[in-house]
Amino acid sequence: MELFDASGAATRLRASPLTSIGPAEPGPALRRGFLLAIPIGLALVAELGFDSPTKGAIATGALLAGFPGMDAPAKVRAAWQAAVAPLVGIMATIGILSGASPWLAVPTMALVGAAAGYCYAVSLRFSIAGLSVALSLLIAQGLPLDSGDAAAAFVLTTAGGLLQALWSLLVYAAGDRDEEGGERAWSTAGAIAALRSNLTLGSVAARHGIRFGSALAAGVATYWAIGMEDHGFWIPLTILFVLRPEREETDRRLVLRAVGTAIGLALATALSFWLQDSPIALALVLTAAAGFSYGLLTVQYALFTAAITVFAVIMADTLGDRALSAAGQRGGATLLGIVIAGAAFVLWSNPRQLEAETA
Fold first, then answer.
1. Residue-level pLDDT at 55
2. Residue 239 belongs to a domain
3. In this predicted model, which residue has the larger pLDDT, 276 or 108?
4. Three-class SS state of 181
5. In this prediction, what percent of the chain has a pLDDT beyond 90?
6. Largest pairwise CA distance in the chain
7. Dihedral angle, C-alpha 296, 139, 137, 93, nearest 10 °
């Protein structure tokens, strides 16, 4: 059963209200989610036993590459994951090289964010690929790494994405032989035509690209301005997850993000304190959090936010950033991200006609 239609004519996914479930049915969505989490678990078991600055890079690459094409049959999913993997690795490298200076970090995030936002011109699936690539840059800019780690980050993060693609090919070989055709099939010519036709401020995608890149850059600039480099990347992280082309959908996700983050921070802090430094237990919890993140994205956005928050907090904890001491700063950074995302539409909204067309 399909999780959601992310290709062809479909260009958006509506998040359900806090008390509702959908559009995907929980059972099939969660089964697909935990299937996608298996490569992440394998990478975590291998990585958590080593004390390296780039520990977790393979698992992170596998996590990010797992989102594009997650609704597709295994063969098509593998193609999307293989295509995204090197881009995720490149952005991890650029993030490390630009993250040490606000004069590099802010404009880099603005450009990459604008490109990611503009991907909505093609399809929802293409936009998810763009968001995954931008997320790699965002994470890398926020990590305490130096330029000497850039090459390793590229290799390991790309390897994680390719591991996800290899797993999808194994699933295909094991019997998932479904194909995609018709309007759901990828069309390079159609994608180029969509990108060209939306190069106007009368386009929702173009306006969103500018708004998205500007808001992400503002998030990065904010955490540098207030001296919050250690945990400040949660500000643009929140913006990336909630800011959508439509005002109504953005407002809904702002509320869901706030609720989900509060739940995720509380749960992650408790789990981190309880697990301490057990690599196997940490790997199991992180794998479960990744599985729920994939599975709940199309089921209940607040619960997806809680799951991805647990993954991010515990992963950071394994790198030496203790969850208990950082929980307050992460919560504050999330609130700042929510404010910036909300202000983005106040400062530059879509004309009423465009909002009506996307309703």
1. 86
2. yes
3. 108
4. coil
5. 62
6. 55
7. -130
pLDDT at 158: 98
Residue 359: count of CB within 10 angstroms of its CB = 8
Quote helix, strand, coil % in the chain, to nearest 5. Answer: 75, 0, 25
Say yes or no to pLDDT of 119 above 70: yes
Helices (H) and strands (E) in the chain, counts: 14, 0
Sorted by sequence, the CB contacts under 8 Å of residue 139 that are 6+ apart come out as: 60, 92, 95, 233, 237
- Please state the domain count of the chain: 1
* DSSP structure class, residue 359: -
Chain-centroid distance of CA 218 in Å reads 18
- What pTM, to 2 d.p., does this model score? 0.94
Domain assignment of residue 21, yes or no: no
243: tokens are 């800011």
Provide the CB-side half-sphere exposure for 280 (13 A, CA). Answer: 0
The Cα 199–Cα 207 span in angstroms is 9
For residues 207 and 13, the model is more confident at: 207
* Tokens, residue 159: 């390897």
- 213: number of CA atoms within 13 Å, CB side? 19
Q: Which three-class secondary structure state does DSSP give residue 221?
A: helix
The whole-angstrom separation of Cα 330 and Cα 318 is 16
The pLDDT value recorded for residue 351 is 79
Helix axes 102-118, 204-225, angle to 10 degrees: 160
DSSP H stretches of helix in the chain: 26-47, 57-66, 74-98, 102-118, 124-142, 150-173, 188-197, 204-225, 234-242, 247-275, 279-296, 301-318, 323-347, 352-358
- Angle at which helices 57-66 and 74-98 cross, to 10°: 130
Answer whether residue 5 is part of any domain: no
Note down the domain range covering 49: 26-358
Q: What is the torsional sign of CA 195, 158, 30, 72? A: positive
Taking the C-alpha atoms of residue 224 and residue 312, their distance in angstroms, rounded to an integer, is: 20
Does any domain span residue 248?
Answer: yes
Give Cβ neighbours of residue 203 (< 8 Å, ≥ 6 apart): 121, 197
66 and 81 Cβ atoms separated by less than 8 Å: yes
